[in-house]
Amino acid sequence: MEELERASELLRELVSIPSPPGGEQMLAEHIAARMEELGHRAELVEGNLLLNPGAEFWVATHLDTLSVSGEFRVSGGVAFGSGVCDAKAGIAAMLLALEKIEELRLGFALLVEEETSGRGSALVVERFSPRRCVVLEPTSLRIATEQYGGVELSFRVTGRAAHAAVPERGSNAIERAFELLEKLRELPARVTPFRIEGGGDIYAVPESCTLVVDLIFPPGVSLEEVRRRAIAIGRAYGSVEVVEEEEAFTLEGEASELLEEALRRQGVKPLCGSMPSWCDASNFKKAGWDVVVFGPGELAPCHTHRERVRLEEVLLTSRVIGELNELLGE
């Protein structure tokens, strides 16, 4: 019970400090002060907070959180609140682990702007040679051995205006956007419409419409194929712009193996899963790091007012970090 209360207290403290992308400094300085109280001097490097960066094995997560309405509260061993899971649960696990680590062998990295540009991890891989690394993200304590790819597209759908009382004389761009969306669902990818905008106050059939869509896919599916087919579909309805894109890849190596052993030593059977969303592991992987994704909490409620994490998962993650630190000394 005492450990649960400690985890709850620490999460409340972290969530109370706003850390929007680009505005993480206050949180970083607070965490650095906490680390110093524990006898560890961290350094700020272009916004990123790094502790023991000379280590050959790192644990990393991000400082920034998206602002969604949700006050911090705890009920039935579950903490709720904006950013409580993504990724302040990982930060809490790091600090809880540091409270018990006597000889620090791990490196810790708390990164900026993961939720937007990925600038923090991009800067790190420019400054440091490849390491082994566990990236803490909500995976429900599963070892994510694959990272999904994705392509975000903005479609400008065209139609033909007409008086709304005689819609058959025009071509409704909004209806065409829905047709386009259904055709995209034939691709080997999950389809998420982000935004649809069109029409106005004039009593007329909309002549144009913007549809922004995210397509995500696992390793084994070609980014080039998904992009090519999506663009071909979109051009039949108007114009298409690629907003951003990322290949899918696997995450298997020594980092994953050590993480499995750390879980076993905590009496937990390692389970594998996937990371369906972009995270800093992508920048690490492309730079040649041996990286794996793992962490407390479920991804689905994140970025919503239902965001939550089980305190027991935070504590287990802290113990796994401690085990990783011990393994490096063997």
Task: Summarize the main sheet.
Answer: 6 strands, mixed
Can you tell me the CATH class of the largest domain?
A: Alpha Beta
Order of helices and strands: HHEEEEEHEHEEEHEEHEEHEHEEH
- Give the termini separation: 32 Å
Query: How much helicity do the residues have?
Result: 25-40%
User: Any idea what the CATH architecture of the largest domain is?
Assistant: 3-Layer(aba) Sandwich
What is the total tally of β strands?
A: 16
Strand order of the largest sheet: 1-2-6-3-7-15
Give the overall shape.
Answer: elongated
Total domain units: 2
Q: Which fold name is given in CATH as the topology of the largest domain?
A: Aminopeptidase
**What is the number of helical segments per DSSP (H or I, 4+ residues)?**
9
Rg is: 22 Å
Uncertain regions: pLDDT < 50 for 5+ in a row?
A: none
Mean pLDDT: 97
- Tell me the name of the CATH homologous superfamily of the largest domain: Zn peptidases
Name some characteristics of this structure.
2 domains, about 325 residues, alpha/beta, Alpha-Beta Plaits, 16 strands, Aminopeptidase, six-stranded mixed sheet, four-stranded antiparallel sheet
Describe this entry's structure for a reader.
The chain is built from nine helices and 16 strands. By secondary structure, the chain is an alpha/beta fold. The longest helix is centred in the C-terminal third of the chain and has 17 residues, at 311-327. The radius of gyration is 22 Å and the shape is elongated. The protein starts with a helix and ends with a helix. The model has no long low-confidence stretch (mean pLDDT 97).
